[in-house]
Write a structure and sequence with these properties.
The protein is mainly α. It contains 20 helices and eleven strands. Strands 3-4-7 form a three-stranded antiparallel sheet. It has a two-stranded parallel sheet with strand order 1-2.
């Protein structure tokens, strides 16, 4: 009898990075478990030695930990159903494969790779819809099988599929699903190297680990009838299935590395916040109430349900991810951003500079509405951390006139008289100076912005001047007058 409280699992193969599709699967399993007071289990499916990548499991676990999806059972965490790494469970799979053979539900196959290839070619010539094994070795006698095994002839163990009838199952997302048994191949269960295939190991582990809900990508839908047959052949209770929609590129092709980054680690390294990644991934195939798009993890747990997962493929829209990253930065306190900014600065050319927290928080607050990434504090407003060495030529051509130096010298003289520079005094003084010179305030505002920042756009000018301070502002204006005169 399956548990009343859900037990769900994320079961990746350690073949490299954590794919965003894998993260979506992990997230939906996590949300379902947390909402329903269940258990979220991590199982490493490492039985395909040709695809195994050293260190991939550790990287995967570290990435899940970074993004905040903590599992209840799995590698390095005690649980009652381990081990949770499939390569450590080989004797279990062999035991159950032998049981299927005894029941007549599986059989030894000694066909060579050459025979299988010839079979595939012949079936292709006949224009059959798919290549399938022809049950050749099912006709072997017990004596022939025994002799081949004694000679240690390479072999596999295949599922003995009854080609009559249908496999029917209910899927939370797909509703009722049917497969004609004539389309189901005699799938290999144990490979010639003694390792199980995904199909056998997956079903055995889900049963022994008491998994109640199998929540996985749509690409596994075609494998499900093989799994249903295995449950039936073993006489086991089946879990509830939910197959998630495909992730698509903007051109509706399947999401792949050819058209952009697909590794969670790539997005982390580019500066996306974990909160934004989780929020974005959650919306790839699911939507909350009232078309709400901004979610924190605890809000997702409260709102998530498998019934609201869509059937149609979900488009990976990088613009939405960028917007969400910006929104999650705005949602953070200045103190939290300060911690992130300091980490970013360690990797910048300003790592040796010693800026006070008070100064950095002022920069954070003035730029908060303008940035998409934490690194934008440095790349979009470097003038808070160093004097500009160059000045935007298009702004010079448009805003810097022959009498601008004279106007700026007058402004400097008035700024020198001020004891403290706050934005109100700065603005009043600039306006008064413009009146004295009988010019519009724009004749001063634009050149001053260029002088102190090197560019023609940015946050409020008077806020910039206040943050930089009186002496720094005057020094920068004087420097700009000299440099632009020489250019």
């Amino acid at each position: 009898m399956l548990s009343e409280k859900p037990r769900v699992r994320f079961a990746p193969s350690p073949t490299g990075y954590l794919h965003v599709g894998g993260l979506r699967t992990a997230l939906y399993n996590y949300l379902y478990a947390k909402k329903n007071d269940g258990k979220f289990i991590l199982r490493i499916e490492d039985t395909d030695k040709n695809r195994y990548v050293e260190g991939a499991m550790e990287n995967l676990i570290e990435t899940l930990k970074w993004i905040g999806l903590d599992y209840n059972e799995g590698p390095f965490i005690n649980g009652n159903f381990g081990p949770y790494i499939q390569s450590q469970r080989l004797n279990i799979y062999r035991k159950y494969a032998d049981e299927l053979i005894e029941k007549g539900k599986a059989y030894h196959c000694f066909c060579t790779a050459e025979r299988l290839e010839n079979l595939r070619v012949e079936q292709k010539k006949l224009k059959l819809p798919q290549a399938m094994y022809d049950k050749h070795c099912l006709k072997l006698t017990q004596d022939e099988i025994k002799e081949n095994l004694e000679k240690q002839i390479p072999h596999v163990i295949r599922l003995n599929v009854d080609k009559k009838g249908k496999v029917v199952f209910d899927d939370i997302i797909r509703d009722r699903v049917e497969f004609d048994c004539s389309t189901i191949d005699d799938q290999v269960l144990i490979k010639s190297d003694g390792y199980p295939t995904y199909h056998l190991a997956n079903v055995i582990d889900d049963h022994l680990m008491k998994i109640t809900h199998v929540i996985r990508g749509e690409e596994w839908l075609s494998s499900t009838p093989k799994h249903i047959l295995l449950y039936d052949y073993f006489g086991w209770e089946k879990p509830i299935f939910a197959h998630l929609p495909l992730l698509l590129n903007p051109d509706k092709s399947k999401l792949s590395k050819r058209q952009g980054d697909v590794a969670v680690e790539d997005y982390r390294d580019k500066g996306y916040l974990k909160e934004a990644i989780i929020n974005f991934i959650a919306l790839l195939g699911w939507s909350g109430k009232d078309n709400k798009e901004f979610f924190m993890l605890d809000e997702l747990i409260k709102e998530f349900s498998l019934e609201k997962v869509h059937k149609a493929g979900a488009v990976f829209n990088i613009e939405k991810l960028n917007w969400l990253n910006s929104e999650h930065i705005k949602n953070k306190s200045s103190e939290d951003i300060l911690t992130l900014l300091k980490k970013e600065m360690i990797n910048s050319k300003f790592k040796s500079e010693n800026y006070s927290d008070f100064y950095l928080i002022k920069v954070i607050e003035i730029m908060k509405e303008r940035i998409t990434f934490i690194k934008d504090y440095i790349t979009l407003s470097p003038y808070f951390f160093e004097k500009p060495e160059d000045y935007d030529k298009s702004v010079i051509d448009k805003r810097w006139e022959s009498d601008t130096p004279e106007h700026l010298h007058k402004l400097i003289a008035n700024y020198v008289k001020l004891e403290h520079l706050n934005k109100e005094q700065l603005e009043i003084t600039l306006k008064n100076t413009a009146e004295e010179l009988e010019i519009g305030t724009g004749k001063l505002i634009h050149p001053v912005r260029l002088a102190v920042s090197g560019i023609g756009v940015g946050p409020g000018l008077y806020e910039i001047l206040e943050i930089l301070g009186k002496d720094e502002v005057i020094t920068r204006i004087k420097k700009a007058i000299e440099k632009i005169k020489q250019s």
